[in-house]
TrEMBL record:
CDD domains: UBA_EF-Ts. Residues 73-269 form the Translation elongation factor EFTs/EF1B dimerisation domain. It comes from Acidiluteibacter ferrifornacis. InterPro entries: EF-Ts_dimer_sf, Transl_elong_EFTs/EF1B, Transl_elong_EFTs/EF1B_dimer, Transl_elong_Ts_CS, UBA-like_sf. Keywords: Cytoplasm, Elongation factor, Protein biosynthesis. It holds the Pfam family EF_TS. It is found in: Cytoplasm. Associates with the EF-Tu.GDP complex and induces the exchange of GDP to GTP. It remains bound to the aminoacyl-tRNA.EF-Tu.GTP complex up to the GTP hydrolysis stage on the ribosome. One of its GO terms (molecular function) is translation elongation factor activity. Its main location: cytoplasm. This is Elongation factor Ts. GO terms for cellular component: cytoplasm. Residues 82-85 are annotated as: Involved in Mg(2+) ion dislocation from EF-Tu. It comes from the Bacteria.
Amino acid sequence: MATITAAEVNKLRKQTGAGMMDCKKALVEANGDFEQAIDLLRKKGQKIAANRGDRDAKEGLVLAKTTADNKKGVMVVVNCETDFVAKNDDFAAFANNILDAVIENGVSTVDAAKALTYPGTSLTIADRIIEEVGKIGEKIDLSAVEIIESELVVAYNHPGNSLASMVAVSKAGDAEAEAAKNVAMQVAAMNPIALNDEGVDAETIERELEIGRDQARQEGKPEEMIDKIAQGKLGKFYKENTLVKQQYIKDNSLTVEAYLKSVNKELVATGFKRISLS
């Protein structure tokens, strides 16, 4: 049996991030073969990942970033089990590396992202997730990838990184970028369900109309007025829940649409994304 030195254990620990005892056991089992020891640790990670497959990974980080030309925005969610891990600098670096890989390669689905090469390694992101599970001892997953493109995209990361948003607008420029940032903060705070009326799905519209009809009947309104009243309530719903019709949070005298036009009469929001862990 090969003699395993503390220096070898420390070297393996630094390379893999695994615990000292795990590294020593792997080196002993591998009879001192460094590459085999790494494989053993990876297999351990796979085993841990499988064992933790039924665990909830509801904590984590939501990260958003734009490309250098600010024409594309990318958002990812990397989950873990505990807030303690989510606040760890190493986990944050791991999640940000995944975000960078997605931005660089322009993929738009979780499966495509997991197949990418993790930066600085020859491993896929899926394999690096397995390794990270072995290192940290918690279930970890890449659960969401969102992409948005336009003439200008701005990303907003809320402090704590449990919430992020992106807003796309039709014109680029410094003033337009500042306005888009303000609207991205609006999206984070007010959680609109759609960009405009047309973006609200038919099921939601019919549900709101039915609620409006029921409320009108309970108030004793004439039957011939029921549909008109329900349409009025639907209009209020649009104002509260579609981005362009919401009151602008920094100036309630304006809608978001009007605020953007006050910056540039041709400036309109073309889309948004928002993800929150809560």
